[in-house]
Amino acid sequence: MEYIVEKIGMSRTISTQSTPVTLLKLVEAKVCEIDENKRAIVAYAHTKANNKTIAGQQKKYNLTAEFNKFATLEVANSEVGNLDFTPLSEAKILKVSFNSKGRGYQGVVKRHGFSGGPKSHGSRFHRRHGSIGNCEWPGRVQPGMKMAGHMGNEKVTVKNELVSFDAENGIVVVKGCVPGHNGAMGRIRIVK
Fold first, then answer.
1. DSSP letter for each residue of 52-63
2. Which of 32, 34, 119, 159 satisfies CB 3.0 to 4.6 Å to 41 for a cystine?
Protein backbone atom coordinates (compact mmCIF):
# COMPACT_ATOMS: atom_id res chain seq x y z
CA MET A 1 0.00 0.00 0.00
CA GLU A 2 1.22 3.49 -0.87
CA TYR A 3 0.41 6.88 0.63
CA ILE A 4 1.23 10.55 -0.07
CA VAL A 5 2.99 12.24 2.88
CA GLU A 6 4.45 15.62 3.79
CA LYS A 7 7.69 15.82 5.76
CA ILE A 8 7.21 17.74 9.01
CA GLY A 9 10.76 17.48 10.34
CA MET A 10 13.03 15.52 12.66
CA SER A 11 12.84 14.87 16.38
CA ARG A 12 13.95 12.18 18.82
CA THR A 13 12.38 9.67 21.17
CA ILE A 14 12.44 10.39 24.88
CA SER A 15 13.76 7.23 26.51
CA THR A 16 16.95 5.90 28.09
CA GLN A 17 18.41 5.46 24.62
CA SER A 18 17.33 8.37 22.43
CA THR A 19 16.57 7.52 18.80
CA PRO A 20 16.41 10.07 15.95
CA VAL A 21 13.04 9.99 14.18
CA THR A 22 11.35 11.77 11.27
CA LEU A 23 7.74 12.95 11.45
CA LEU A 24 5.59 12.57 8.32
CA LYS A 25 2.01 13.83 7.92
CA LEU A 26 -0.41 11.78 5.82
CA VAL A 27 -2.08 13.89 3.16
CA GLU A 28 -5.84 13.56 2.86
CA ALA A 29 -6.60 11.94 -0.48
CA LYS A 30 -9.60 10.71 -2.45
CA VAL A 31 -9.58 7.53 -4.54
CA CYS A 32 -11.02 8.40 -7.96
CA GLU A 33 -10.65 5.16 -9.93
CA ILE A 34 -9.45 1.60 -9.13
CA ASP A 35 -8.34 -1.05 -11.62
CA GLU A 36 -8.21 -4.85 -11.13
CA ASN A 37 -4.59 -4.77 -9.82
CA LYS A 38 -5.50 -2.47 -6.86
CA ARG A 39 -3.79 0.45 -8.64
CA ALA A 40 -5.79 3.63 -8.22
CA ILE A 41 -5.88 7.23 -9.40
CA VAL A 42 -5.75 9.32 -6.25
CA ALA A 43 -6.43 13.08 -5.93
CA TYR A 44 -4.90 15.18 -3.15
CA ALA A 45 -4.38 18.84 -2.27
CA HIS A 46 -0.92 20.24 -2.95
CA THR A 47 -0.46 23.82 -4.18
CA LYS A 48 -2.63 26.18 -6.17
CA ALA A 49 -3.30 24.83 -9.63
CA ASN A 50 -5.72 26.50 -11.98
CA ASN A 51 -5.81 25.11 -15.49
CA LYS A 52 -8.33 23.44 -17.77
CA THR A 53 -6.76 19.98 -17.53
CA ILE A 54 -7.09 19.83 -13.75
CA ALA A 55 -10.56 21.43 -13.91
CA GLY A 56 -11.63 18.68 -16.33
CA GLN A 57 -10.34 15.95 -13.98
CA GLN A 58 -12.09 17.58 -11.01
CA LYS A 59 -15.38 17.69 -12.94
CA LYS A 60 -14.97 14.08 -14.14
CA TYR A 61 -14.43 12.72 -10.60
CA ASN A 62 -16.77 15.18 -8.77
CA LEU A 63 -13.95 16.76 -6.72
CA THR A 64 -13.75 20.11 -4.96
CA ALA A 65 -11.20 22.73 -6.05
CA GLU A 66 -8.69 21.83 -3.30
CA PHE A 67 -7.99 18.39 -4.82
CA ASN A 68 -5.73 19.57 -7.65
CA LYS A 69 -2.90 16.99 -7.81
CA PHE A 70 -3.21 13.41 -9.08
CA ALA A 71 -1.08 10.29 -8.54
CA THR A 72 -1.28 6.57 -9.27
CA LEU A 73 -0.91 4.49 -6.10
CA GLU A 74 -1.40 0.93 -4.89
CA VAL A 75 -4.25 1.21 -2.36
CA ALA A 76 -6.12 -0.94 0.16
CA ASN A 77 -9.51 0.49 -0.87
CA SER A 78 -11.95 -1.68 -2.78
CA GLU A 79 -14.20 1.23 -3.78
CA VAL A 80 -13.99 4.92 -4.66
CA GLY A 81 -13.92 7.38 -1.74
CA ASN A 82 -11.53 8.48 1.02
CA LEU A 83 -8.15 6.72 1.17
CA ASP A 84 -7.98 3.93 3.79
CA PHE A 85 -5.11 4.38 6.30
CA THR A 86 -5.78 1.25 8.45
CA PRO A 87 -2.98 -0.94 6.95
CA LEU A 88 -0.43 1.46 8.51
CA SER A 89 -1.36 0.33 12.03
CA GLU A 90 0.07 -3.18 11.36
CA ALA A 91 3.08 -2.04 9.29
CA LYS A 92 6.65 -2.49 10.55
CA ILE A 93 8.92 -1.35 7.71
CA LEU A 94 8.26 1.41 5.15
CA LYS A 95 9.99 2.50 1.95
CA VAL A 96 10.05 6.30 1.92
CA SER A 97 10.61 8.19 -1.37
CA PHE A 98 11.35 11.93 -1.55
CA ASN A 99 13.35 14.25 -3.78
CA SER A 100 16.68 15.10 -2.16
CA LYS A 101 17.59 18.71 -1.39
CA GLY A 102 18.69 20.57 -4.52
CA ARG A 103 22.21 22.01 -4.32
CA GLY A 104 22.35 23.73 -7.71
CA TYR A 105 25.37 23.72 -10.03
CA GLN A 106 28.46 22.40 -8.18
CA GLY A 107 32.08 21.81 -9.11
CA VAL A 108 33.87 18.47 -9.02
CA VAL A 109 35.40 18.98 -5.56
CA LYS A 110 31.98 19.24 -3.87
CA ARG A 111 30.07 17.00 -6.28
CA HIS A 112 32.49 14.06 -6.61
CA GLY A 113 35.07 14.64 -3.86
CA PHE A 114 38.03 15.44 -6.15
CA SER A 115 41.09 16.66 -4.25
CA GLY A 116 42.04 19.55 -6.58
CA GLY A 117 45.55 20.79 -7.28
CA PRO A 118 48.26 22.72 -5.42
CA LYS A 119 47.12 26.01 -3.93
CA SER A 120 50.27 28.02 -4.68
CA HIS A 121 53.07 28.74 -7.20
CA GLY A 122 50.69 29.83 -9.95
CA SER A 123 49.49 26.34 -10.84
CA ARG A 124 46.09 27.66 -12.02
CA PHE A 125 44.66 24.25 -11.04
CA HIS A 126 42.97 24.64 -7.69
CA ARG A 127 39.42 23.26 -7.72
CA ARG A 128 39.10 22.25 -11.38
CA HIS A 129 38.70 18.75 -12.83
CA GLY A 130 41.68 18.94 -15.18
CA SER A 131 41.97 16.95 -18.41
CA ILE A 132 39.05 14.71 -19.37
CA GLY A 133 41.14 12.62 -21.75
CA ASN A 134 39.30 12.91 -25.08
CA CYS A 135 42.15 14.08 -27.33
CA GLU A 136 42.21 11.52 -30.17
CA TRP A 137 40.06 8.52 -29.32
CA PRO A 138 37.06 8.50 -28.88
CA GLY A 139 37.09 12.25 -29.61
CA ARG A 140 34.11 12.94 -27.34
CA VAL A 141 33.21 13.00 -23.68
CA GLN A 142 32.35 9.50 -22.46
CA PRO A 143 28.96 8.99 -20.74
CA GLY A 144 29.24 8.99 -16.95
CA MET A 145 32.34 11.21 -16.88
CA LYS A 146 32.64 12.86 -13.47
CA MET A 147 32.35 16.57 -14.19
CA ALA A 148 30.80 19.69 -12.69
CA GLY A 149 27.02 19.92 -12.93
CA HIS A 150 23.65 19.91 -11.25
CA MET A 151 23.64 18.23 -7.84
CA GLY A 152 20.71 16.98 -5.77
CA ASN A 153 16.96 17.19 -6.45
CA GLU A 154 16.84 13.50 -7.41
CA LYS A 155 14.36 10.86 -6.22
CA VAL A 156 15.84 8.96 -3.27
CA THR A 157 14.19 5.93 -1.64
CA VAL A 158 15.19 4.73 1.84
CA LYS A 159 13.92 1.91 4.04
CA ASN A 160 12.81 3.00 7.52
CA GLU A 161 11.38 1.23 10.54
CA LEU A 162 7.96 2.48 11.66
CA VAL A 163 8.16 3.74 15.25
CA SER A 164 4.55 4.84 15.72
CA PHE A 165 1.40 5.82 13.84
CA ASP A 166 -1.13 8.34 15.18
CA ALA A 167 -4.31 7.60 13.19
CA GLU A 168 -6.27 10.49 14.73
CA ASN A 169 -3.81 13.19 13.58
CA GLY A 170 -2.41 11.29 10.59
CA ILE A 171 1.21 11.40 11.82
CA VAL A 172 3.68 8.66 10.87
CA VAL A 173 6.92 8.47 12.89
CA VAL A 174 9.82 6.59 11.24
CA LYS A 175 13.24 5.75 12.64
CA GLY A 176 16.19 7.68 11.18
CA CYS A 177 16.30 10.37 8.54
CA VAL A 178 14.42 10.86 5.30
CA PRO A 179 15.69 12.81 2.24
CA GLY A 180 14.25 16.21 1.32
CA HIS A 181 13.46 19.49 3.03
CA ASN A 182 10.77 20.12 5.63
CA GLY A 183 7.44 20.60 3.86
CA ALA A 184 8.42 18.37 0.93
CA MET A 185 5.84 15.97 -0.52
CA GLY A 186 6.74 12.32 -0.98
CA ARG A 187 5.44 8.75 -0.82
CA ILE A 188 5.59 5.91 1.66
CA ARG A 189 5.05 2.25 0.78
CA ILE A 190 4.45 -0.59 3.23
CA VAL A 191 7.11 -3.31 2.85
CA LYS A 192 5.98 -5.51 5.74
1. HHHHHHHHHTT-
2. 32
